[in-house]
Design a protein that fits this description.
Length: 228
């Protein structure tokens, strides 16, 4: 029973403030537990507790700390979501600057044109005295063998588009392989090629940038070894 206008609920004042702001928050996310809801639940718990076993201060403060932790995690998640959106926009800006440029990527295929020879790099893991580059057509026919002699480490190569008879080959995509003798065994080495970036796709869900390279196709930006 109320006496002189005083409410039966001595904790009612806890839920009497910020009514409009609480309503606005609930409208934004009606399924989310707000601070006012938490205080209402806490008030109800205090009113209905066992008088012989009242809630200790430590328990009360522990519940408040738990709610604050959950609320903080939610805010942190929102911050990370905003950060991810900013990063994606930044990736799109960086990706647009790559279009039209050339990059060095791991590959065993490349494009040769009249204005641009096929160029790349060989990772000669073991020193050899007879490094050799072989160029094949898209049908697998050997069109050129380029002796490169002794080599070790990263070694650049270039093909001018001529076959073994000195005749100019048609523009297009060609395969290549670098080999040398290591401990008496014919060994193939990892190769990379310089290719032009035709377009860039900004992936979603953290997938990053994917480049569409002339004559090669889609390659993740993470595989780029050098931007020319």
């Amino acid at each position: 029973m109320a006496i002189n206008g005083v409410s039966d609920n001595p904790y009612a004042f806890l839920n009497s403030k910020n009514t409009s702001s609480s309503t606005e928050e609930e409208e934004k996310d009606p399924g989310k537990l707000q601070m006012n809801d938490f205080l209402s639940l806490m008030t109800t718990q205090l009113m209905n507790q066992d008088p012989l076993k009242p809630m200790e201060n430590g328990d009360f403060l522990g519940q408040i700390a738990s709610f604050s932790t959950v609320s903080g995690i939610s805010d942190l998640q929102d911050s990370f979501a905003s950060f991810a959106n900013v990063m994606q926009s930044d990736q799109a800006l960086q990706g647009s600057s790559l279009v039209g440029r050339s990059v060095l990527v791991p590959s065993s295929i490349g494009v040769m044109t009249a204005d641009s020879p096929m160029r790349g790099q060989i990772n000669v893991a073991e020193p050899v005295s007879n490094l050799e580059m072989k160029i094949y057509s898209d049908t697998g026919e050997l069109v050129r063998t380029i002796p490169m002699g002794a080599a070790s480490g990263y070694t650049n190569f270039e093909w001018d588009g001529l076959n073994n008879d000195g005749e100019a080959m048609p523009e297009g995509t060609y395969q290549f392989m670098a080999t040398g003798t290591v401990d008496g065994q014919n060994t193939a080495f990892a190769t990379a090629v310089i290719a032009k970036v035709d377009s860039v796709l900004v992936g979603s869900n953290g997938q990053g940038l994917t480049m569409n390279l002339a004559g090669i196709g889609s390659v993740p930006f993470s595989e780029v070894q050098e931007i020319i």
